[in-house]
Amino acid sequence: MKKPISHNPIPSMHLSERQAHIAEMLHQADVIRVEELSRYFKVTTQTIRRDLNLLCERGLARRVHGGIQRVHTLGNVAYAWRQVLNNEAKLMIAQKVAHHVPDGVALSFSIGTTPEIVSNALLKHQHLKIFTNNLNIAFQACANPTFEVTVAGGRLRNEDRDVMGNGMEALFSAYKVDIGIYGVAGVDEDGTLLDFYEEEVRARQIIHANSRSAFLVLDHTKFGRAAHVRGGRIDEATKIFCDRLPPPGILALLEQSGTQLILCDGDRTP
Q1: How do residues 6-40 score in pLDDT, each as one tens digit?
Q2: Could you identify which of 16, 45, 72, 152 might form a hypothetical disulfide with 171, taking C-beta atoms 3.0 to 4.6 angstroms apart as the criterion?
Q3: Beta bridge mates, 63
């Protein structure tokens, strides 16, 4: 019998459902106003201002007259944004992955918000050995006293809180794990996996090469998303967890390769 373990889910940066919804709206609209949000959510303008102040404190927005504006960054979307965007889909993916991970196995986790949410869904498991260069994953995994957590040493990317460089390569190359879990910035129409930096590609490829099974976790927005560093193919994964069916061309690739596609649409079946 599994020993109950207390854990606190961390997705959405501790935002309320309304605040996460506002963040999604801001990502689409770029600028949103207090009055329109007050009407939309049927709450007072004072309540909305408190919500917007919190989003600004988290670095997701900046104040403008009458509302807020999204903070733009070069390259990939800022990590704080990625923790909020498509959160419902990522939670469904994480719950499904948890059904495919038995107790007592060794796992490597790559960078990114979807692997982070997956690791949170595993906190009720027992005796997992976790290897990661993602400090967010490492810290939350420590909440389970039966887990053994090993982290990479090296250069820390401050905003993303992950470790890159020789230490990362040495860690993932030193262990043959049961399951490697990784995400991706985008998937090209020919099935090529894309990221924004060479070292992100390198981390994913080393995890894949040193895992008996490779789990690619991604939501549907990654298909056709532009990123410029190529590395690996979608049909090389053992299992793919996604909230919606991929485009027809990608589906054909997966059928030819034998890669298992697992839809994560909220049903309770493994």
Answers
A1: 333 334 456 677 887 787 777 667 788 999 999 98
A2: 152
A3: 68
